[in-house]
Amino acid sequence: METVDIAIIGAGVVGLAIAAEISDGRDVVLIERHNSFGQETSSRNSEVIHAGIYYEKDSLKAQLCIEGNRLLYQICETHQIPYQRIGKLIVALNEGEINLLELLFAKGRDNGVHDLKLLSEIELKKMEPNIQAKAAIWSPSTGIIDTHSLMKHFESQAKEKGVLLAYGCEVTSIEKKTSGYEVGVVDTDGEKLSFRSQVVINSAGLSADKIAGLAGINVDTAGYRLHYAKGEYFKVCSEKSRFIRHLIYPTPTPISLGIHTLLDLSGRMKLGPNAFYVDEIDYGVEEAHRKDFFASAKSILPFLEEDDLSPDMAGIRPKLQAKEEPVRDFVIKEESGSGLPGFINLIGIESPGLTASPAIAKYVKMVVDEISVYV
Ligand SMILES: Cc1cc2nc3c(=O)[nH]c(=O)nc-3n(C[C@H](O)[C@H](O)[C@H](O)COP(=O)(O)OP(=O)(O)OC[C@H]3O[C@@H](n4cnc5c(N)ncnc54)[C@H](O)[C@@H]3O)c2cc1C
User: Fold this and answer.
1) Is 274 in the pocket of ligand 1 (CB under 6 A)?
2) Quick check: 300 pLDDT over 80?
């Protein structure tokens, strides 16, 4: 039977970043059920390089987002990956929201985002003459990135370092052996194969809880059950795109950052994502939600008409918290404590997972370096 040192499950941006980071001198295989990388959440998101403002202090989300933000800009500059340090405004519409904005400003600073600025209504008008709001936080280190190019870059780096890319292979079983794991896969022709790996890294996105379950972890006891929170986008007709210059976010709610106004790298404007829990994965966009998008955006963007909006795309967030439950942090854990040495779970890698991806990869490498001493 074929044996490798490390098997990574899932070729989204996180699995690819890990493959590019940890492959030096090790036999690594990256297993992906689709025929190419990034077919799920990594190509269904806002493509924003977040600054790290919103997350709980010292959480993995805060630390890895801030580190990932720094690393992503470096990677983009060194490897010609399209990006723009466009900056973001988080706006308040009334006195109540201004109070929340001040708390958010303090939280961001406390997390180590030191370039934030509070703007008055007049200062805001100078930056964005066409929007209406009473105050804003200005975040200059928020940007946008071409995620496909980033994933392609990680894939090329992984290939150069000798990582075997097993596309079209779905992991269907994981069995603990005296040393390492036997991983069973089914390829697109339905053929079953299996191999041994000393270390298994579960970066299976929306299916990460199922993969943990395959390895024998009770996902409910461990608190690993994923809940799907869908986010839809509506595009805005091109004539209106020139009315804004930066990303515009409302004051956030407990379950989402709110429907924001995005510009992509070609200057096209879109609105989204909304957030609602679903039972099934379905990427359709409800035309009927146009009214809610319009109502929420119109209060900030007075130039908008409902007919300017048309359905765009949707993504699904793998959330550890069910509806109305408190926000949870990323789980990145080596499972020796559950009798699975060398099995590393990455669960609940929702936003800011894209931003954090290069920092997550370094963190996972550190975990692997520690465990390789005894596996
Ligand atoms: C609406 C929305 C907006 C977002 N906006 C942002 C943003 O602006 N900025 C930001 O930083 N983050 C954002 N995110 C979060 C970000 O997109 C994710 O954190 C990131 O893409 C997660 O990457 P991943 O590799 O963990 O997961 P995925 O991209 O889902 O990859 C997991 C891979 O595992 C594979 N897989 C699963 N099961 C198996 C199996 N059994 N065998 C083989 N392969 C398997 C899947 O096919 C998939 O390719 C957003 C997310 C959503 C949903």
Assistant:
1) no
2) yes
Q: Determine the Cα–Cα distance for residues 276 and 338; give it in Å rounded to an integer.
A: 33
- For ligand 1, whether the C-beta of 203 sits within 6 Å is yes
Q: Given ligand 1 and candidates 351, 357, 360, 363, which is best to mutate, with the most ligand atoms within 8 Å of its CB?
A: 351
> Which pTM does this prediction carry?
0.97
* Span from the CA of 348 to the centroid of ligand 1 (angstroms): 10
pLDDT at 25 over 90: no
Nearest CA to ligand 1 atom 31: 12
Whether 317 lines ligand 1, by a CB cut-off of 6 Å, is yes
Q: What is the pLDDT of residues 152-176, one digit of tens each?
A: 999 999 999 999 999 999 999 999 9
Predicted local confidence at residue 26, as pLDDT: 93
Residue reference for tokens 């900030």: 300
What is the per-residue pLDDT for 101?
A: 94
